[in-house]
Amino acid sequence: MPPRPYVLAETNWKAVKDTSFEVAILPWGATEPHNYHLPYATDNYETRALAERAAEIAWNKGSKVVVLPTVPFGVNTGQLDLKLAINMNPSTQAAVLYDIASALAGQGLRKLLILNGHGGNDFRQMIRELQTRVDLFICTINWWTCVKGADYFDEPGDHAGEMETSIMMSLEPDLLLPLSEAGAGKARKFRVAGLRDGWAWAPRQWSKVTADTGTGNPAVSTPEKGEKFMKAVAERIGGFLVELAVADPKQMYE
Ligand SMILES: [Zn+2]
Fold it and tell me: Whole-model pTM above 0.70?
């Protein structure tokens, strides 16, 4: 496959030097166990693929967008007791983000989208803080919220469940163990009602919540469901990129 001009890792200075990029997309994932059957880099595979598909849609409509290499480490403070779950603290992420944003701003880029693929990552407060330090419009999308998972899956699940398993079946089928090897992804709930019902919040200690590291049942996953969902997400984000590419950061309100 020839280099795609909207994927930075593949393209070259010859193509880049004469292109006025409008939006950079930074996929941000995590490295952690995903039930018994999915690879540790599941979030990175998913988020990179969605960023590239969305960028392709926008590029083909004339938008100058570029996907940066994926940051592979997420906030996993609740999984430190799970072997080879690699935590990157929020304060470290903020420092990484500051360096990337400063480089882009210094080179004349005006807009950055952080495409987040891991529930433990939350870039909103970092963006609020960065706003005062870097002359760059920064926004973020948690890709699993772009379209309604319930319209595509019987029970999407939030970690290594039907949604993620279906996506990975479509994206990287050779990396999955058969579903017969997967756990049921049964998650224990908080004892305190407010936390259980979701109007109070605290991070979960993963090893106490689930036996197989999954939360969400992968049993009825299929690659077709995964492909259909990814297509819808990529179209949504692609449309967003088209709009964002022509938006003037100084004129963001109608
Ligand atoms: Zn995941």
Answer: yes
